Amino acid sequence: MRSVDKKITIFTICLMLFGLLAFPALSGAWSRMVPANFSELAQQAKSGVVNIQTVKTIKGGGRVFRHFFGSPFGNQPGIEDFFSPFRQMPRNRTESSLGSGFIIDKTGYIVTNNHVIKDADQIKVILHNDKEYDARIIGADSVTDLALIKIDAKDLKPLKFGSSKNAQVGSWVVAIGSPFGLEQTVTAGIVSAKGRIIGSGPYDDFIQTDASINPGNSGGPLLNMDGEVVGINTAIIKSGQGIGFAIPSDLATSVIDQLKDSKRVSRGWLGVSIQDVSKEMSEYYTLDPDEGVYVAKAYEDNPAYEAGIRQGDVIVSVEGVKISSSRDLTLTIANLRVGSKVDIGVIRQGKNKTFTVKLGERPDNSEDSQFGEELNSFDDLGFMFKSLNEDLAGQLGYPSSIKGLVVTQIDPGSQAAMSGVRTGDLLVEINHKKITRLSDYTRTMGKIEKGQTAHMLFRRGNSQIFVVRFEK
To answer: Are 175 and 100 in contact (CB under 8 A)?
Structure first.
């Protein structure tokens, strides 16, 4: 027994020695992974974060009034028209909203979201020391939901931008803002994912984070552990607690610089209709997986066509950088300077070619673009769309007065393929909401949660109207 006890004692001593040696190392590694606290970072950054309060005028009572004080008989045909001459609509009323922002310049330039200050009659900025200033809008970009405003102040303490490219998934980040009007609220989390597409527009490229973001955080900074801005907090998922999205700093800085210099944003433009390369097309053109974008059409008198790019070409690179998807090409070209000359690598009939294209300006905000907006890759239902313009309406036999999205392609095997919808059909409504532009479509579909139903109203030709039910 004594020999056994001796062996146990020796084993116990060895185990204790191992613990003394190992656990400090493990403890040190863990302390390097998890910050002891965020107080120093919060203290350093708080002077650069602001609370934004806006006041806007809502005409005729607005949507809320119409919702609560509509016809007492519901939406019965003719009833609304009967009562409308006798209804006294209320006078214009004011509506207040809250948001956040951050200082980028000692002289008073402040970055926030476009939706925070859009249509505002009055914008008030409150600093961390409770000083208040009236702000004016320098410029805004609805496509990326960014805005630049300015206050008349001096010796402010701006925050510095970092590179969102260097913000790795899993790295610590801190959000500072005014959720629900609670100023200088600090929350911490990690970068959960990058490159998220949430259906807000053609330049979706969001950073996903689990740092708590709530209404009022919009426009506030997402900071790395060096106190640098790597994102602008912008959106949340209504049903997803703890999931927030931020505009990457690398995308934001180019937009903000243009707003500061010229009060507007211009983006590069090739003038092509494009689509992702399918597996079959990849085999046909002998391409690597996720390589290239197919040119469905190169429009005459536009940059790509004038440089020599034609329908059937597969764009594989821009300035030597690999292109793997339609979204990839759209973002790359949009971030290049209008008028700059870029080398576009293509594969034509199995041979590599390079064309030098002088970029034009993308007609993002043109309601009557000769091409119309296009959804150049299949959506979740299996559709590709193009907004109806005058030329397209004439080709398809639709009256020029009708607005909507034309189905240009349908993905085989998708919900769309099994629905009976054909190419050339015109989408005009989703769940009784009119759809005239791609932004209407992405916004409306983005509000429909997984498992819910989208009722789509289509028109075929001059007379046939039909409804198709899709489950998202």
So the answer is: no
Pick the CATH number of 383-471 from 1.20.120.1730, 3.90.550.60, 2.30.42.10, 3.90.1570.10: 2.30.42.10
Cα-only R_g, the chain: 27
Q: Which of 137, 134, 164, 54 is nearest to 99 (CA)?
A: 54
Known binding residue 145? Answer is yes
- Alpha carbons 85 and 63: distance in angstroms, whole number: 19
Tokens of 379: 């959506």
- Domain ranges (residues) in the chain: 49-151, 160-262, 268-361, 383-471
Q: 268-361 — its CATH code?
A: 2.30.42.10
Catalytic residue among 141, 145, 313, 364: 145
Task: Give the architecture-level CATH label for domain 49-151.
Answer: Beta Barrel (2.40)
Q: Is 273 annotated as a binding residue?
A: no
Q: How far is CA 48 from CA 25, 134, 176, 244, in A?
A: 38, 17, 10, 21
Given the residues 100, 115, 178, 419, select the one marked as catalytic.
115
Nearest in space to 459 (alpha carbons), one of 396, 373, 374, 369:
396
Q: Which homologous superfamily is 160-262 in?
A: Trypsin-like serine proteases (2.40.10.10)
Residues whose CB falls within 8 Å of the CB of residue 446, separated by 6 or more in sequence, listed in order:
198, 199, 200
Any known ligand binding at 51? no
Quick count: other Cβ atoms within 10 Å of Cβ 419?
Answer: 19
Strand 228-236 with 160-161, pairing? parallel
Q: Tell me if domain 160-262 and domain 268-361 are identical in fold.
A: no
Report yes or no on whether pTM surpasses 0.70: no
Whether 67 sits among the annotated catalytic residues: the reply is no
**425 included as an active-site residue:** no
- pLDDT tens string, the chain, 472 residues long: the values are 444 455 545 555 454 545 544 545 444 444 456 666 788 898 999 999 999 999 987 665 443 333 333 333 334 443 333 333 434 445 566 778 889 999 999 999 999 999 999 889 999 999 999 999 999 999 999 888 999 999 999 889 999 999 999 999 999 999 999 888 788 899 999 999 998 877 666 777 899 999 888 888 899 999 999 999 999 999 887 665 678 999 999 999 989 999 999 888 888 989 888 888 877 778 877 887 778 898 888 888 889 999 999 988 999 999 999 998 888 898 899 888 899 999 999 999 889 999 999 999 877 543 333 344 555 567 889 898 888 877 777 778 787 778 899 998 888 888 999 999 998 899 999 998 999 888 788 888 888 888 899 999 998 877 688 889 998 8
Q: Is 192 annotated among the ligand-binding residues?
A: no
Is 128 marked as a binding-site residue? Answer: no
Catalytic residue among 100, 164, 192, 218: 218
Q: For residues 405 and 398, what is the distance between their CA atoms, to the nearest angstrom?
A: 12
